[in-house]
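Weekly modeling sync, notes
Attendees: S.R. (lead), two postdocs, one rotation student

Agenda item 3: backlog of single-chain predictions. S.R. asked that every request posted to the team notebook include the full sequence so nobody has to chase files. The rotation student volunteered to paste the first one in as an example of the format we agreed on. Action items at the bottom.

Example entry:
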Amino acid sequence: MAQRIDFMKVFTAIFCALFVAASAFAQNYSLATKQAKNAVAKEEQNQQAINQGSPPAQPATPPSANNPQPNPALEATLQNIASLRADFEKFDSNPNEQTAAVE
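Predicted structure, as returned to the notebook:
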């Protein structure tokens, strides 16, 4: 009889643990489906706005009161990109000029 009671306790504990795990999974699934439905509704509004010829409603963002200082690393990177772009355009503009490979 004691073995049967122990079996029932273990079975009940396992059943409760599975029930809690399933309800947690169901809650996450429910949140995911709500988020997906909201995304679909927002996309449908954007498509309707595009079809009507008006731009989609943008969320209002307040203008920044203080402008942050430019990042020096970003500025240097942008300058390097502009320099490389100019070099490539120079090479593209004169395809007959062949430059010697740097060894």
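Discussion: group reviewed the output briefly. The radius of gyration is 32 Å.
Action items: rotation student to repeat for the remaining queue; S.R. to check formatting next week.
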